[in-house]
Design a protein that fits this description.
single chain; Aminopeptidase; Elongation Factor Tu (Ef-tu), domain 3; eight-stranded mixed β-sheet; 26% strand
């Protein structure tokens, strides 16, 4: 990975943008794509769009990721100055205790920790996990007045874990879900611009995916492209922590994952598989019998139905502070999108032939 795209990726991964509070992450994304696109814009809720215009005769295809991440929210302050929290999105109560967190207050970040009783003081036969509503954040305040001078009810909270390079091309961070998706969308747009494809290509960075795919519903209705490739992470199943009983095999470092079934439009699935062959990209297939759980599920029912497909990036330990991806998979996904953008110009539409 070249230095400029890697710097962009690192900045995205170290910028906090929990659902409903995505403006910091969107600013990073917009600053980058503004140097690539023919036009950029945002909507009322902060969805961001960049476009590279085609020749006018080709279709419009969108590459979309979501910029928001899971987190917590301050819901109360106790008399002793501790913060009671609730979830933003699918926050995992089993990994939150004993973690460093940051409260994103109006006046600036406030450091804190999620309290955990020492092992010496816990009942040895009770290893249950408290609900998030029973957990608390300690910011060091001595009473409610001091705590309330630092934070307000409704302030978002994220894990403070940073970016960590692992062996080879693998890296770990919080919020990889789904900063890597918006990175891939931007880089796919860049390669499409460099190669001068016939299709009009959009890159989209949506908000509020983690709380119900809401941003994709908004921007899908407004933009109404001919097709959408939704880019998100998917569960890598190649660790001792995961059984293959619940999903098919997905391996880190073995390329992007094309979802097949249900939401995923069959014409786009075939386009992606053909494009992977043409680009020399190893692609993995994943069966999706009901729903993808990604923005593809919102795009494909927007308006009268936008052909959509989900492409997953293998990710270990999703929704924890230590998610892990392989940057080779990111590069391979970008190469796949570049080939898709080029091949899309050959399509008049993406309708299923009956």
């Amino acid at each position: 990975m070249d230095a400029t795209p890697r710097g962009f990726l690192d900045e995205l991964l170290t910028t906090h943008s929990p659902s409903g509070f995505e403006s910091r992450g969107q600013r990073v994304w917009l600053d980058y794509v503004s140097g690539i696109a023919d036009d950029v814009w945002t909507d009322a809720y902060g969805n961001a769009v960049a476009v590279v215009d085609g020749d006018g005769a080709g279709p419009e295809i969108a590459f979309s990721g979501h910029v928001d991440e899971i987190g917590f929210i301050v819901r109360d302050v106790t008399d002793d100055g501790f913060l009671r929290i609730g979830p933003i999105g699918g926050a995992d109560r089993t990994v939150s205790k004993g973690q460093h967190v940051t409260i994103h207050a109006d006046e600036g970040p406030v450091p804190g920790v999620v309290g955990q009783a020492a092992i010496h003081l816990r009942e040895r036969d009770d290893e249950t996990y408290d609900d998030l509503e029973a957990q608390f954040v300690d910011v060091g305040a001595t009473d409610a007045e001091e705590a309330r001078s630092l934070v307000r009810i409704g302030d978002p909270v994220t894990f403070s874990s940073g970016l960590q390079a692992l062996q080879g091309t693998r890296l770990s961070a919080r919020g990889i879900d789904n900063r890597v998706g918006v990175w891939v969308a931007a880089e796919g747009l860049r390669l499409a611009a460099d190669s001068g494809v016939d299709a009009t290509v959009y890159a989209i960075s949506t908000v509020q995916e983690e709380v119900g795919l809401q941003g994709a519903r908004m921007v899908g209705y407004d933009l109404d492209p001919d097709a959408v490739v939704a880019l998100d992470v998917t569960h890598a199943t190649d660790t001792p922590a995961v059984s293959g009983d619940r999903s098919g095999p997905v391996e880190l470092g073995c390329g992007p994952v094309v979802s097949r079934g249900s939401t995923n439009h069959p014409v786009l699935v075939d386009l992606l598989c053909d494009a992977a062959d043409a680009a020399g990209v190893d692609a993995q297939l994943q069966a999706t019998g009901v729903r993808t759980g990604t923005d593809a599920d919102a795009f494909y029912t927007s308006r009268s139905g936008i052909p959509a497909v989900n492409v997953g990036i293998p990710n270990r330990y999703m929704h924890t502070p230590v998610e892990v991806v392989d940057t080779d998979d990111l590069d391979a996904t970008v190469a796949l999108l570049a080939e898709v953008a080029d091949a899309a110009g050959e399509y008049d539409d993406f309708s299923v032939r009956i």
